[in-house]
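Re: the 147-residue chain
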Amino acid sequence: MNKKWTIRLDAERRDKLEAIIKKGKSSARTIRRAQSLLFADEGKDDKQIASLLKCAESSVYCTRRRYCEEGLEIALKEKARSGRPEKLVGKSKAHLIALACSEPPEGRACWTMQLLTDRCISLELVDSITKDTVRRVLKKTKSNRGK
């Protein structure tokens, strides 16, 4: 067992963790973290807990460490992930939506994703973009492109 990150739960925290597990309303990861902390409080080491929960030892270790350093709420929650920033934001996203709602180019019945993609690039809203990105933006607005 890792001596540096020893888990000692008081009755209130134990009850809270058991309630999270019994209700089953939280995400699977939150429930697994709660189980991990309860097993750690019982004196099981990371390898045993990982085997019982069928997860990686590093997950158990990180949960244990986050609990000791930052507290129960932080240990149970998902850390924010950085991800890639959106290409279309603010005015450029609004411009795309307005473009999709406008009349299609001459000779076309409606806008296609590729036409919208090409127009966004030609209008210099973005330097490059895929038609899938355009589709996701329009899907969030529930746009039907004039149909």
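The two ends are 63 Å apart (CA to CA).
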